[in-house]
Write a structure and sequence with these properties.
Elements lengths: L3 E11 L4 E8 L4 E7 L1 H11 L9 H11 L3 E10 L2 E8 L4 E5 H11 L3 E3 L1 H7 L1 E2 L2 H8 L24 H13 L4 H5 L22
Parallel strand pairs: 4-7
Antiparallel strand pairs: 1-2, 1-7, 2-3, 3-8, 4-5, 5-6
Helix pairs in contact: 1-3, 2-3
GO molecular function: nuclease activity
Pfam families: BFN_dom
InterPro entries: BFN_sf, Bi_nuclease_dom
Length: 207
């Protein structure tokens, strides 16, 4: 099955620690995938998505220029997920391809204007249902009324699944990243110091 185009909603913070993630949406299914980012990556992506440019070219601007010299971007695809790490592939029009971080995939998409695609298997593995209330509570996203969520099958009372499974899936995903329910609600839990795993979802050797 071909990779599926997704919508990049933006960069958001979760919990009192302010863990940052980019939220992408599988439009036809009304499902979302949070991709965890380092503070530096989150800041750069957030600024670019909001149309704020630096006075001098960034490293991603340079990469985009070099890519154009080679014929331009063909596809930007997030194509694998393993043990909390997303991987992506940048493919050029001349057939050359590069293994890149998911955060760089999102940034190059913002810089070049090319859409981000995600492999169907990755979406099935990592995506979750979030209803309108969940989006407001966890990400501060107000869809502004019925019918604006891409999936079209969203239960606007709570979860798109219509049962507790969607909430359980979301809680499980947050816990896998080291974020607890009390973190999300801003409640103190003794000397909690945040997740033991890297909240970027990327291993040290990929940074």
């Amino acid at each position: 099955m071909p990779a599926i185009e997704v919508l990049v909603h933006g960069v958001y913070e979760l919990g009192p620690e302010g863990f940052s993630c980019a939220l992408i949406e599988w439009l036809s299914e009304g499902r979302v995938v949070p991709i965890w980012l380092t503070p530096a990556d989150a800041t750069m992506l957030d600024l670019r998505l909001r149309g704020i440019h630096s006075r001098r070219p960034t490293s991603h601007d340079l990469i985009a220029q070099l890519v154009e010299v080679q014929g331009g971007v063909s596809t930007i695809v997030i194509d694998s997920y393993h043990e909390g790490v997303f991987s992506a592939t940048l493919s050029l029009s001349d057939g050359t391809s590069f293994d890149i971080r998911s955060s760089d995939a999102l940034m190059l998409s913002a810089v070049t204007g090319h859409s981000v695609y995600v492999e169907h298997d990755v979406l099935q593995q990592c995506s979750l249902y979030l209803g309108v209330e969940d989006l407001k509570h966890y990400f501060g996203i107000d869809l502004g009324g019925e019918g604006e969520h891409g999936g079209g099958n969203v239960d606007h009372d709570h979860s798109a699944s219509g049962d507790a499974q969607a909430d359980a899936d979301f809680q499980s995903l947050m816990q896998s990243m080291g974020v607890t329910e009390s973190d999300l609600r801003g409640e103190a839990e003794g000397d909690h110091e945040g997740p033991e795993t890297d909240v970027t979802g990327e291993s040290d050797d990929e940074k």
